[in-house]
């Protein structure tokens, strides 16, 4: 499992994941930048993601949905707030309606993804910050920690495919 730690911090209103991958930062960065690669790991197993829009620029919008085993769809959105390729990405995200647009733009989390070269591996630290303790607890109750662990657990296979193809 690439996730080496997950920490919920109710005081800081955050959930932090640290994962390590056998690839350089440029390659791991592509997992975020390329919507076709992103959708292969963003949803946990059984809930694949489909990105119908992914504007990977500051101010850019992403719209996606995850499809469950019974065909149900969970829609989400991102607005990218900062990019420092291939080291850091920041975005706001939240729930979307069936049209892909935010249900309540104020009901969002803020994510900061940092990629750091550690020898021949890349450490990816993802910090999601919540607007309130209630929002943090709601997302935890919905299984966000386990879902992210499982989603990130799919990255190694995707990276291995890339090496075989490259």
Name of the CATH first level: Alpha Beta
CATH superfamily: START domain
Number of separate helices: 5
**Global structural class:** alpha+beta
Q: Helicity, in percent?
A: 25-40%
Strand content: 35-45%
Mean pLDDT: 93
Number of domains: 1
Largest sheet: 8 strands, antiparallel
Gyration radius from CA atoms, angstroms: 15 Å
Q: What's the architecture in CATH terms?
A: 2-Layer Sandwich
The CATH topology comes to Alpha-D-Glucose-1,6-Bisphosphate, Chain A, domain 4
Global geometry: globular
Gap from first CA to last CA: 23 Å
The helix-strand sequence is: EEHHEEEEEEHHH
Low-pLDDT parts are none
For this structure, the quaternary state is single chain
The overall strand count is: 8
Q: Biggest sheet, strands in spatial order? A: 1-2-8-7-6-5-4-3
């Amino acid at each position: 499992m690439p996730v080496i730690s997950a920490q919920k911090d109710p005081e800081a209103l955050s959930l932090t994941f640290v994962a390590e991958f056998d690839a350089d930062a440029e390659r791991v960065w592509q997992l975020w930048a390329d919507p076709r690669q992103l959708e292969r790991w963003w949803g946990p197993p059984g809930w694949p993601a489909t990105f119908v829009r992914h504007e990977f620029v500051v101010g850019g919008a992403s719209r996606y949905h995850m499809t469950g085993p019974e065909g149900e769809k969970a829609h989400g959105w991102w607005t990218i707030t900062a990019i420092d390729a291939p080291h850091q990405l920041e975005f706001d995200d939240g729930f979307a309606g069936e049209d892909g647009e935010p249900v309540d733009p104020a009901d969002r989390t803020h994510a900061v993804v940092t990629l750091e070269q550690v020898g021949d591996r890349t450490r990816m630290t993802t910090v999601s910050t919540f607007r309130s303790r209630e929002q943090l607890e709601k997302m935890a109750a919905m299984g966000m920690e386990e879902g992210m662990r499982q989603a990130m657990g799919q990255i190694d296979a995707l990276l291995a495919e890339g090496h075989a193809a490259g």
